[in-house]
Amino acid sequence: MIQVLSLLWIFFKIGACTFGGGYAMVELVAEQVTSHGWMEMQEIIDFIAISESTPGPIAINMATYVGFNVAGIPGAVAATTGVVLPSLIIIMIIARFYKKFIANRFVAGAMRGLRPAAIALISAAMVSIGAEVFLPFGFSVQSILTFDMLFSVITLGLCLFLVYKKAKPHFILLASAACGLLWGSIQNIFM
């Protein structure tokens, strides 16, 4: 029961303190989950990849997964409720006083100030997860000159090319999954 309440409280704090959507939450979730010893960073990275290809917001998917991993179904319900509840409360308050909020110069100023913070949180998550994925053993010449790195760069290049060509997101996900399957097959055969 203590873990369930802990999940509720931790994800409530994450939901209340994160602006900018689920990607801004990734770094906070990773820090909290690893500091409590609930999951390793590699597990979090694997789940982020999975949650990107499953329906639903990444923040809710992450909360549900972590909660389930820690305390089963009650943990999943607690973590999901915790991450959703702050937004629900804030939206209900804003909806009630929408006209007063929208015209308030302090609220407008706060929103302008939150935009750079959201970008910083998303960037921090990108750097943290990128370092764990591309350089799990630290930066060295050997870590860069690997087939894994080469394949990652090729896959990234393909994804950027598809984004540039304005390919549909599901096609980009399928192309990335196909690249991963190809690389996994090559590793099983030759390595």
What does the model show?
This protein is mainly alpha-helical. The protein has 2 domains: about 1-135, no CATH class; about 135-190. Helix content is about 85%, strand content about 0%. It has 9 helices and no strands. The protein has helices at about 1-15, 20-35, 40-50, 60-95, 100-105, 105-135, 140-145, 145-165, 170-190. Helix 8 (about 145-165) packs antiparallel against helix 9. The chain is globular and about 60 Å long. It starts with a helix and ends with a helix.
Entry keywords:
single chain; 191 residues; mainly alpha; 2 domains; 9 helices; globular
| Main beta sheet strand tally, sense and closure | none
Count of DSSP-assigned helices:
9
Structural class: mainly alpha
Q: Percentage of helical residues? A: over 70%
Rg on CA atoms, Å: 19 Å
SSE arrangement, N to C: HHHHHHHHH
SS strand fraction: under 5%
**pLDDT below 50 for ≥5 consecutive residues: which ranges?**
none
C-alpha geometry: globular
Write down how many β-strands occur, each being a DSSP E stretch of 2 or more residues: 0
How many angstroms does the end-to-end distance come to?
46 Å
Count of individual domains: 2
Average residue pLDDT: 82
